[in-house]
Amino acid sequence: MKEEVSYEEIKEIFTEYLRKHHHRKTPERYAILQQIYSYQGHFNADVLFNGMKSDYRVSLATVYNTLELLQACKLIIKHQLGGQFAQYEKAFGTATHHHLICTNCGKVKEFSDKQIRVAIQSRQFAHFQTSHYSLYLFGLCSKCIDEMKKTKS
Amino acid sequence: MKEEVSYEEIKEIFTEYLRKHHHRKTPERYAILQQIYSYQGHFNADVLFNGMKSDYRVSLATVYNTLELLQACKLIIKHQLGGQFAQYEKAFGTATHHHLICTNCGKVKEFSDKQIRVAIQSRQFAHFQTSHYSLYLFGLCSKCIDEMKKTKS
DNA sequence: TTTGTTGCAAAACGTTTGCAGCCTC
DNA sequence: GAGGCTGCAAACGTTTTGCAACAAA
């Protein structure tokens, strides 16, 4: 059910966005996009920056600059989960999903629920034009529940 | 429909939590709770810190410390919306609601939707115990849509 | 040629931490 | 009296910014 999207396809989307907004098509920007394309789950600016070093040297400033652009053209989604750094996630070729976040260990899991998705997506507003949404369920994962039972005095 | 909760009531909840966890009942903690109680919508650590200065002088460290405690006993909820500072919100005497966030001006509006709420709350997980959730819808508010139309070349 | 973009480093930002003194318990 | 809590300021880690050099258009 999950549609496969090739790098060429998203590169096209990005190029189109850059052209439309009169931004330059620099090799750095495409290198970053390609690196992001290679990740499966969530990633952050630091992982991206350090992961690319060997292939194509870009500065951290350029990484942030490009992440900004990719958000604007909706190729990635930004999540602010922990108090620390922002997490990013591919938004192409990925089924809509929601997040389970353990408030104890911070682990993030994903799940899909058609009923929830439909309920949210069908909601319309008179004075607001929705582009995307994020749903976070906070609680305890099974591992942390078990640990708490053990350490119970 | 919205139940009114008095300061005395939440003070009681907080006191109970402090006692159970062997934390001290300091005047600073109650002063912060009272200040939070006076706010209507969202607030952040800085607003709280500066807003209290005249009434009761507390340090920023104590503000953060107390916000941590209030989260633990579920009297407040923490939101990480912008890339900047964390937002907080009262969690007592407030109906469950969801958030509309303008990606252009950053303004946050609240809305309620029974269908969405029920869909989310009725979802059960085998390996996860949900305590609360946050739903953020991102998009453009009417004001920003209008402004974009005007400045269109 | 123009000017948006880069890399670098310094600065900014909210938040956390270390520590001496204070005040609940 | 003991030790958790406070205030202060310095430290932290992520993100942003200033600026000269560079390169896409």
Can you tell me about this structure?
2 copies of one chain form a homodimer. By secondary structure, chain A is of the alpha+beta class. The first copy, chain A, has 2 domains: 1-93, Winged helix-like DNA-binding domain superfamily/Winged helix DNA-binding domain (Arc Repressor Mutant, subunit A); 95-153, Ferric-uptake regulator, C-terminal dimerisarion domain (Dna Ligase, domain 1), CATH 3.30.1490.190. Chain A has helices spanning 7-20, 27-38, 45-52, 60-72, 114-121, 142-150, and strands at 76-79, 87-90, 98-102, 108-111, 128-141. In chain A, the strands form 2 sheets. The first copy, chain A, has a 3-stranded mixed β-sheet. In chain A, α2 crosses α4 (60-72) and α3 packs across α4 (60-72). Chain A is globular and about 55 Å long. The A-B interface holds A 78, 80-83, 86, 100, 102-103, 109, 111, 113, 115-116, 119-120, 123, 125-142, 145 and B 80-83, 86, 100, 102-103, 109, 111, 113, 115-116, 119-120, 123, 125-142, 145.
